[in-house]
């Protein structure tokens, strides 16, 4: 039974050693341990708060990046649309300029044809007038001579007219 019921002296000395150990631990060891635990707890809380802030900032940055991408797409679409409009306008302007140039060339060609035609008609009139004068001259000369000469002149003139 000695094992189950301890002695009073043993109980006293065990309690005294436990109390001294408890006082030493409370005075020298527990404060640094509690301070370290509290400091670690504070660091963990600060780290969690920083992580939450960082996560919120990341979400904000992600939303901002998405907005920037949307704006860039809109700007890209506007630039492409503007380039297409400019290209089609340049093509239409070039077509209009080519059409105007073609009309100008056609008008110039028609004017050249008209002037060549007028020059040919004028030259033809000059030749007809020259032939008429030659014929008149020959007729006048032939009338001034005898009848035989008139007949010969008429035959000759007829032969000249058939050749031309």
Describe the overall structure.
There is one protein chain. The protein has 164 residues and is mainly α. The chain has one domain. Helix content is 94%, strand content 0%. The protein has two helices and no strands. The termini are far apart. The model has no long low-confidence stretch (mean pLDDT 89).
Range of helix content: over 70%
Largest sheet: none
Instruction: Please mark out the parts with pLDDT under 50 across 5 or more consecutive residues, or reply none.
Output: none
Q: Give the rounded overall mean pLDDT.
A: 89
Rg, Cα atoms, Å:
64 Å
Q: What is the 3D shape?
A: rod-shaped
Structural category is mainly alpha
Element string (H = helix, E = strand): HH
How many helices? The count is 2
DSSP strand count? 0
> How many independent structural domains?
1
Q: Note the gap between the termini.
A: 171 Å
User: What percent of residues are in strands?
Assistant: under 5%
């Amino acid at each position: 039974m000695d094992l189950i019921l301890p002695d009073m002296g043993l109980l006293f000395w065990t309690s005294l050693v436990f109390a001294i150990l408890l006082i030493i631990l409370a005075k020298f060891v527990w404060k640094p341990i509690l301070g370290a635990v509290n400091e670690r707890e504070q660091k963990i809380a600060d780290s969690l708060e920083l992580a939450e802030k960082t996560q919120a900032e990341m979400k904000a940055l992600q939303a901002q990046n998405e907005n920037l991408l949307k704006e860039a797409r809109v700007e890209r679409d506007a630039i492409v649309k503007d380039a297409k409009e400019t290209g089609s306008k340049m093509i239409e302007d070039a077509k209009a300029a080519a059409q105007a140039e073609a009309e100008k060339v056609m008008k110039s060609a028609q004017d050249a044809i008209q002037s060549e035609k007028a020059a040919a008609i004028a030259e033809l009139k000059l030749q007809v007038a020259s032939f008429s004068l030659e014929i008149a001259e020959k007729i006048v000369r032939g009338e001034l001579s005898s009848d035989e000469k008139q007949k010969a002149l008429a035959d000759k003139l007829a032969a000249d007219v058939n050749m031309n």
